[in-house]
Design goal:
The protein is 25% helix and 39% strand. By secondary structure, the chain is of the alpha+beta class. It has one domain: Nuclear Transport Factor 2, Chain: A, CATH 3.10.450. It has a seven-stranded mixed beta sheet, covered by helices on one side.
C-alpha cells in the first residue's frame, strides 16, 4: 500500500504499523514545509482542532490562524544557521522529535521570547505531536534556549546525526 493511500484512511482502518509509518510521514511533511514559502502546507496537516503549545514561553494557540501567524513571527524573528536532527520515533498516537537548531535573532515577533536582536543561540528543540486519523491535533514544542559558547550549551549528539547548514 502506498503512503498516500494511508493518509486518507482512518486509524481504525489501518494496522498499528501503518499508523506509525503514516504518523512519521505526516510529521516529516510538516517539518519539510515549515518555511516562509510553504508554511500553509504545514498548517494543512493539522486536524480540525489543534493545540499548539510552547510551555517554556507560556504560549498556547488553539486555531490554525493563530498558529500560522506564530510561524510567520518565528520566520521574521529567527535566521536558521544549522539544524541537527537527533532522533524521531512514533507510536500509533504520538511522534517524538528531538533536534538542535542554531539561530541568529533578527527580529522580535515571537511571543514571550526574551533574547535581543543579534543573539546567537542554540536551542534544544523537542516536539511531541499527537495525531489522529493522519492529522496533527496537538503539537508541543519544548524549547531549551542557550547562548552560543556558554557552558550550558552542550548536547550529546548521536554519532550518526547529520547537520544541515544554511
Amino acid at each position: 500500500m502506498t503512503e498516500n493511500a494511508l493518509v486518507w484512511r482512518t486509524d481504525s482502518e489501518l494496522t498499528k504499523e501503518e499508523i506509525e509509518a503514516r504518523n512519521l510521514s505526516v510529521v516529516a511533511a510538516h517539518f519539510h514545509n515549515e518555511t516562509p514559502d510553504t508554511v500553509e502546507q504545514a498548517i494543512a496537516l493539522y486536524g480540525d482542532t489543534i493545540s499548539w503549545e510552547v510551555p517554556t514561553r507560556g504560549v498556547v494557540y488553539r486555531n490554525r490562524t493563530d498558529v500560522l501567524n506564530a510561524y510567520r513571527g518565528i520566520f521574521r524573528t529567527l535566521k536558521y544557521r544549522a539544524v541537527t536532527p537527533l532522533r524521531r520515533f512514533s507510536t500509533d498516537r504520538y511522534v517524538f522529535d528531538d533536534q538542535i537548531v542554531h539561530v541568529t535573532v533578527v527580529g522580535n515577533e515571537m511571543d514571550n521570547f526574551k533574547y535581543p536582536i543579534g543573539s546567537e543561540l542554540s536551542v534544544r528543540l523537542s516536539h511531541l505531536f499527537e495525531l489522529k486519523d493522519g492529522k496533527i491535533i496537538r503539537e508541543i514544542a519544548y524549547e531549551v534556549w542557550r547562548k552560543e559558547g556558554t557552558p550550558e550549551n552542550f548536547d550529546v549528539i548521536p554519532n550518526d546525526a547529520v547537520t544541515t547548514n544554511f
